[in-house]
Amino acid sequence: MEYLTSFGEVLFFIITVLIGVLFIEIYLYLHFKLYDKKFYFFIPLISIFIFYLILKSINLYSTKTMFFITLGEILFSYLCVYRIKGKNYLPYMLVIPSFIGLALLLVYPFVFEVYLSFHDLKLTTILPWKETGKIPFVGLKQYINVFVLPPLSETTFWQLLGRTFLWTFSNVFFHVLGGFILALILSEIKMFKGIYRTLLVIPWAMPQVVAVLSLRGEFHSQYGFVNIVIKKLISTFPFLEKVGVAPVNWLSDHPLLTCTLINIWLGIPFMMVVILGGLESISKSYYDAASIDGATYLQKLKYITLPLIKPVLLPAVTLGTIWTFNNINVIYLVTGQAGGTEKADILVSALYKAAFVYNRYSYSAAFAMVIFLILTIITFLYSKIIKVENT
Amino acid sequence: MKKSKIKSIMLHLLLIIAVVITTYPLIRIFSVSIRPGDRIISTDLSIIPKGATFISYIKLFKETYFIKWIFNSLIITLSTSLIGVILASSAAYSFSRYKFFGKKIGLYILLFTQMVPAGMLILPLYLMIMKLNLINTYLGMIIAYSVSSLPFSIWILKGYYDTIPRSLEEAAMVDGANEIYAFYKIILPLSTPALSIAFLFNFTMAWNEYLVARVILYNPKSYTWTLGLFELQGQFITQWGMFAAGSIIITIPVLLIFLYSSKWLVSGLTLGSVKG
Amino acid sequence: MAEVKFVKVKKTFGDNLVLNNINLEVKNGEFCVIVGPSGCGKTTLLRILAGLEDVTEGEIYIDNALVNNIPPSKREIAMVFQDYALYPHMTVKENMSFSLRLRNFPKEEIEKRVNETAEILQIKHLLDRMPKQLSGGQRQRVAIGRAIVRHPKVFLFDEPLSNLDAKLREEMRIEILRLHQKLQTTMVYVTHDQIEAMTLASKIVVMNKGVIQQEGTPIEIYKKPQNIFVASFIGTPTMNFIKGKITLENDKTFFIHKERKFFIPSYSFPDSSKYNGKEVILGIRPDDIILDDSKIDKENAISARVDVVELLGPRENVYIKISDKKTICATTHSFNIAPHTEINFSLNYLNIHIFDPETEKRIN
């Protein structure tokens, strides 16, 4: 049965990983513990040979790789004998397996991405690359293209940039506003609080794919809930039609607005939960003192609530901004199918489409670098703001 | 007295409106999923449609690879979470307990990886996996997913280990255990909450993931449920009924697990995120 | 300056009866301390006076005006909270002037009042600091200052000293006393600490389980507690309570506990004949047990064994075993009593308290 074989596949994989970890540990242990023995120099030699065998068997062998491995092995052995000398090796043994994984799966791809961005890998050059590992070098051409050529077919980089900022700020604004109002209301009532809280968190708890695709369905021009209600309203109150209320082709005419509405629905619960936590941590006696001092409800909000939830709000807003900026999911799920529109794309979704729909790999690599730089600048600015707020 | 009663009613009213907004889409999905076969696409807004049947559910199981999709997702997700937690628990332990050269750098690298946008790494990962001929396999997916799970798990577990007082291990060592023994027999059992949280987080992330799967899996048989459900809601041909049925089947357990463990998760979030 | 009156005040939280028919008058300029164990309702009573809670039944009068439906800010009261409640993001000056700024007082008036108050409390040098930079005692002063600046008719204190360490508490007690002498405003002070009550109050109100047990001056409460609760609550070390029977022998009243026979002169217990043969509870404070040989009533002295002796510095607590299960405590300054020795003692007949075991009320 199919299921059994795939089950077997994965079991095999897990065992392989465990064996791999075991090998790493043995490797490390031999190097660390036996550093002072006379026969130690055999160990690096054997290790290099084993690496050679492994590389050959998974088809990743090349003289360049072998050279680096030999170099690394010699360096490591040197460290073991002359620096580490068998002391304090336990933490390394615990940490290194994970970090090897990280290096392979994070650091190497990142470096590879940089490499790609200076070359020209696309649909036409990908087969040669697979065979020979070579792609044409083009210097900064890709980076220039990022700013000059549209990633997909029409929208330019600058349009995308602007749209991304618009998307990010309007979403975060409504997330915080909505979350704040709901949290305020929740903090004032006693009955059913738990039930409300649980039900209000559903947009966050639902799997995103289900939530987004269903809401997308509700914006369908004929069968979606939104337009059905609008049609019903118009038939009950004819005057609305004269004012301009009419069913809208949400997905085709206003994709960005649709995505924004969907994302707001998704994002408010998170803010609500965070702000509610902050509200509940404010000691009641501040409000009592303010009552006695004569503050109205709004004054209490302004002078007590807002200043005291800042430490909780600021990290949440920062996180929220970065997540929203990077949110490919909603845009892609709503507009990403074949025949879907470009008009709602933000930077990251255009990046994804350029890479996997248009197969412009190197272009995307450069594009990704640019986006990464923008993000770093934003994060840096944010952390500066937070530091200023905290003093 | 009266003023506060009116205020209370108004607040509850607002909350009820908000609850309707958050729960209505789910209810709609449910009603669509039980629509009878000949009126799957309709403008009917009723919650329990006339002639409600489970035919969409049956069609889902018969005409699509729904069961296989869920199975695929399960395998990939479980493996990723297991590996992630196993590797992370030891790595996090050394970050928490020991001082060693490279510790600071290691922590910064972990932080750094959280900041890199997911989109950036999909491309090189895809190319790597393609070169290894692991496209469209479980293995490829698991490799791709472990990327995000490791740093996050290490972070959460480290935060938790930091709260366990060292005097426990010291007591064990005075009693004669060595460090590894102390780790396995004392620390690990105590960290079950954090291990479960890390496992749960990894599981949720991998389970609901769409974009990476889209890139790596192209055979409908090997889809995860996210890809499968997306297929059912194409641009031109929308299988409303089956899509809704599949959605309900996936969402209900997820919601229940989320609600059941929500108190836990919140404390887990704060554990990992309290940093200077 | 104003009078405060509670008339038939009742307060329930759901099913929970927290205040039961409270009637209390605080006169103009009085320092009234409401004291009692946790949960007795004293804080609730204070909060009701402040307007932070509503009454279920009853009326509150400040300065002869009914204030039940008047919000806290309009009652012309000021409150000092247990955790000070200083707005953490405002400076001391801003904290103190907050209420005045809310009422749009003219700037010069605000300056004047804040400076005056800072002068009185000696916190002028702290005006530009933030609360988190202050010590506990300093924060306390700022909290008091915030109240003074309002020139209220009544000051309310909610266990203000319980977050301070012992030494600071002593200092602040004196400060508050001085403040009252200077300002002469009516003060209502809630605490669970009977020492604060005894030292600060011109009138003490002892509360337990939502009911006023007794009200009076500190001396009255100390010397003539009206029931067992008040007797046990006020006074350190706690009063000794001994269960026993009253018997009359030839016109002389005796209190019998196991084999011990205590003589009670008639002026101490005039109604003794009514209780002949009945069980009563005898209360005697540790410092009313006479151990000094020169002062003992030799005729009626009791002999018993010393159990433990506690040295406290200025005095000793001597624990005397008068029966199998009963040890009583006496205080002395003689420092020559050793444990497990026999000792003679008699009671200070002026300060004997007799209570009815069922009603727990005083009967002498």
Written description of the protein model:
The complex is a heterotrimer of chains A (391), B (276) and C (364). Chain A has helices at 2-33, 42-57, 63-84, 90-117, 126-132, 141-148, 157-188, 193-200, 202-205, 208-218, 225-236, 239-243, 250-253, 255-280, 284-293, 297-325, 328-335, 347-356, 361-390. Chain A is mostly helical. The radius of gyration of chain A is 29 Å and the shape is extended. Chain B is mainly alpha-helical. Chain B has two domains: 2-53, no CATH class; 65-273, MetI-like (MetI-like fold, Orthogonal Bundle), CATH 1.10.3720. Chain B has helices at 2-33, 55-63, 66-97, 103-115, 118-131, 138-163, 167-174, 179-190, 192-207, 211-216, 225-232, 240-273. Chain B is globular and about 75 Å long. Residues 271-276 of chain B have low confidence and may be disordered. Chain C is elongated and about 80 Å long. A six-stranded mixed β-sheet of chain C has the order 6-7-8-3-9-10, with helices on both faces. Chain C has a five-stranded antiparallel β-sheet with strand order 13-12-11-14-20. Chain C has two domains: 4-233, Rossmann fold, CATH 3.40.50; 240-355, no CATH class.
Short key terms for the protein model shown above:
heterotrimer, B: 276 residues, MetI-like fold, 12 helices, disordered C terminus, C: 364 residues, alpha+beta, Rossmann fold, 2 domains
CATH topology name of the largest domain in chain B: MetI-like fold
Termini separation of chain C comes to: 38 Å
Overall structural domain count of chain B? 2
How much helix is in the residues of chain B? over 70%
Look up the CATH topology of the largest domain in chain C: Rossmann fold
Q: How many strands appear in the DSSP assignment of chain C?
A: 20
Structural class of chain C: alpha+beta
CATH C-level category of the largest domain in chain B: Mainly Alpha
